[in-house]
Amino acid sequence: MSFRDWAFSRRRFTLAGRLESVAVLAQAVPGLRGFKRAGVALIAGALSATAMAPLYLVPILFLSIPVLIWLIDGAGGGTRGIWRAAASGWLFGFGFFLAGLHWVGNAFLVDADTFGWMIPFVAVLFPGGLALFPALACAIARTFWRKDASRVVLFAALWSLSEWLRGHILTGFPWNDLGHAWVSVAPIMQSVAWIGISGLSLITVLAAAAFAPLSGAVRRGRKIDRRALIWPAAALAGLAGLGLAGFVRLLTPDPMPVDGARVRIVHAALPQQTIDDPAMREPIFTTYLALTARPGLEKVTHVIWPEAAVPFVLSRTPAALDAIGAMLGPHTVLITGAPRLQHSVEGPDPKVFNSAHVIDGEGHILGTYDKSHLVPFGEYLPLRSILSRLGLLQLAGNLGSFDEGPGPRTLWAPGAGPLGPLICYEIIFSGSVIDPRARPDWLVNMTDDSWFGSGAGPRQHFDQARLRAVEEGLPVVRAANRGISAVIDPKGRVIARAPLDDTGTLDSDLPGPLPPTFYARWRELPYAVAIISMLLICFWPRSKAASKLLPPPSRAR
Length: 557
Fold this sequence. Notes:
Layout: H1 3-7, H2 15-28, H3 34-48, H4 61-73, H5 78-100, H6 112-115, H7 119-130, H8 132-143, H9 150-166, H10 186-189, H11 192-209, H12 230-251, E1 262-267, H13 272-276, H14 281-292, E2 302-304, H15 318-328, E3 333-342, E4 351-359, E5 365-370, H16 384-387, E6 411-413, E7 417-423, E8 442-448, H17 456-472, E9 476-481, E10 486-488, E11 494-497, E12 504-509, H18 518-522, H19 525-539, H20 544-547
Parallel strand pairs: 1-2, 2-3, 7-8, 8-9
Antiparallel strand pairs: 1-12, 3-4, 4-5, 6-7, 9-10, 10-11
């Protein structure tokens, strides 16, 4: 029965008819070759990106992921089959990252005269490089592929491992893991408090892959093979259970706000061209002083400015520190981003850090944190001696390349206790956002999202902050230039939020912390155990009875 015949029949309204449509689609996909096969992989990957912010079309994953599995089904055997599976995985990944990370091109338009020529290369090389990870997962999966139930588990484990590797290799870029789609569903998002984002991504791809066996749901005589419904039913039941557990967590008592603490987030919508202009340094500083001094400051105990709010070396500008002290008053503390210079005994050139300072009401710097996870090509140029000869430059080059700080550090903010500062995209690195020797009571994320444009980028970045709050059980106060400034409670709920691209202030009580979550105690250990267990299940010798748990895909009749 062709898909057209099915579409114009009454059978399409029945369960058997709907299952038969899946079988017809699954029959067609593995047999595709050439440009049709490549096009399906590319489109399926691009559609998968709609599951992320700002659209959150999560159900699309339950179609796009099975399509990739069906493409691997039809890749063939031997070395050619492995390469064909890798190509399908690369095209799927290229479509996914091209659609989901298209906003990266905005950074090269900030100074279009200097960097605009790089956009075509970035549009291909950036998503193309990230797509190597799903390509590797699909190639390894095809090597050990069996057209039975085990392929669901094998694919999920290898895809999840590829996401984990992407988040760690070459400084890592853990952006838009499949688990990020669940930020739009608060109960399921709570699961990262137990299993982290890696665990949630693993469950997400496993649940989506579980719909691939529906290809064998309709057998000869158009009868439903109920064994084919086991995996999708188990996937839906598992997600429902996860949501129920999260719903219960949301109902547990919330911690009391920090007694006597009230924060004011000062955020602006300054374009990057203005920040990079040396002539604008004093006007920018004056703008932040004026915004901070708006009515109600006398009730505020802690003021938060974004990354790059002070576009000069604040620690070496006593007049600016005096102006801050005069503006704050004796009982208010400022936490702000600013560059920092440090003379080195190793050479004549000083080190330059992207830093955060805690400043008291007398203009004294109480503590400093130096950003440790720098943005490649943004804050430093990898292989500088080689790439600079090719004409490549770093994007943020007004003070030269930044130097790397020693790692997460807990600072003390009088009146609000220990805090964990995170500058820009440091918030995206799950499990690496706090000093393990001194757990903070709250996280402060200072960022300049003017590089990201006004579309998906700032929203995806904001979702990462919400996930870190749930993982660690800590509130997050986020100050963003041309981004989303907000106060987030330890369960990932937004207590107060400023509109994107807004200029103004946002006042809020400071939520209290929760005790360390299960994930905060055990980190990736449960995830590692799950991955190893899944791979053992796939490779362990099976009895004939076990191999018949689910019949292989067959032609729809």
